[in-house]
Design a protein that fits this description.
237 residues; alpha+beta; 9-stranded mixed sheet; two-stranded antiparallel sheet; 6 helices; elongated
Length: 237
């Protein structure tokens, strides 16, 4: 089964390892027939796709779970959602089929709330960034500093005003190696224009999926739902 879940509220500060452990406990609590790995220390067979960074909320996190017996997608969704803490919310579930889930995801759409930022300043910075062919920013990793081409990953970006003192950045970013995160985009915007971000930003991933030509993202679970809904032909004597 392939699941989409949300990471909301205070649980956006959970690390990916914490989320994985919480899911394993939730699956045991829900008494679902999860398949286990082989070996001396068996563990539930979960496969994660493109986890959001710690501190970022999300409406589009994905995990694939192997089961040892047939299960109903909606029953899995309801049982696991009830067993997980509020803030880790199972939003969709579909039987796995066809292409692998990572093959259906190559971009993310982010919404970043920016308290204290004036919309005109953000719009001016976006215009300058999009006019560039490339813009590399440095990120500190455990292996030292590494350059990330933010402009090469940004598909499109727009802004709007939540109110007079808070701007909203809406941006679609291709999945690259290393991944370009919302804070990298803000670093790039601050590098090309006068953009002050006085309050920590509040990023939320709204979508993940395959990038279409028009800049929108295709739902990665749609092919699985379509396949499951297809009627099975009957053999006639």
């Amino acid at each position: 089964m392939r699941l989409r879940f949300g990471k909301r509220g205070r649980l956006r500060f959970l690390s990916h390892r914490d989320i994985a452990r919480t899911f394993e406990r939730g699956l045991r609590r829900a008494r679902l027939p999860v398949a286990l790995s082989a070996g001396f220390s068996p563990h539930p067979r979960l496969s994660w796709v493109g986890a959001a960074p710690t501190g970022a909320a999300s409406e589009a996190e994905y995990v694939e779970i192997a089961f040892s017996a047939p299960v109903d997608p909606e029953q899995v969704r309801q049982a696991l959602d009830a067993a997980l803490p509020p803030g880790l919310d199972v939003l969709d579930c579909a039987p796995a089929g066809g292409r692998s889930l990572p093959d259906r995801i190559d971009a993310s759409r982010w919404q970043v709330r920016l308290p204290g930022v004036v919309t005109a300043d953000l719009d001016a910075a976006i215009t300058v960034l999009l006019a560039r062919e490339s813009l590399v920013v440095e990120r500190v990793t455990k292996d030292g500093k590494r350059g990330v081409d933010v402009r090469g990953a940004v598909v499109w970006a727009v802004c709007r005003a939540e109110n007079d003192t808070c701007a909203i950045l809406d941006v679609v970013v291709r999945h690259t190696t290393p991944a370009v995160r919302p804070d990298d985009v803000l670093t790039a915007l601050s590098a090309v224009a006068v953009l002050s971000v006085p309050v920590p930003p509040e990023p939320t991933r709204l979508e993940q999926g395959r990038l279409r030509e028009d800049g929108t993202l295709a739902d990665p679970l749609a092919p699985d739902r379509d396949e499951a809904a297809r009627p099975v032909g009957r053999l006639e004597a």
